[in-house]
What we know:
This protein is of the alpha+beta class. It has one domain (2-144): SecB-like (Bacterial Protein-export protein SecB), CATH 3.10.420.10. 16% of the residues lie in helices and 40% in strands. A 5-stranded antiparallel beta sheet has the order 1-2-5-4-3. A hairpin with a 2-residue loop joins strand 6 (94-97) and strand 7. It is elongated and about 55 Å long. 25% of the residues are buried.
Amino acid sequence: MEQQLVNNNIQMTFAIVGIQILNLSIKNSPEYFLLPANNNYAFEIKAGVLVDPLNQVIGIDFFIQLFSSPEKIDNVFGLTVRMSYKILNFENVVIRDGSKISVQDSALHHLLALTVSTTRGILFEKVQGTFLSRIILPPIDVTTLTKTENQIPQTSPSV
């Protein structure tokens, strides 16, 4: 199913062509069942971008690490999700500079927002029945996950 993003800066037509869980780990040890639901957990959140110009696909890798305390010593959960988007008007969305490709900010932020919301649902589903069942991914400003001048090497996400 095709979707469109239209704003002042860009028009993008795309389809989701893949959703993959690249990594999932839950440290489901008995001592963690004793942690209260409102424990002072700490999230570490990152995103990566892959561009496949040949197939006109942009892939977003979204990484979540959850630690049992703000000191980030004990990693209790990890999730990496990759979403792949076929960009039907690829040349309107990317900026080429020699051998480097960057994705226009508004398009990238939109794809990141879709990836974050999909990952939020995957997280909710995967932690059911574990001590993390009450964990909710906090609100994320996707503009903080990327740089304005984000240069992206040309690579191929698996779809």
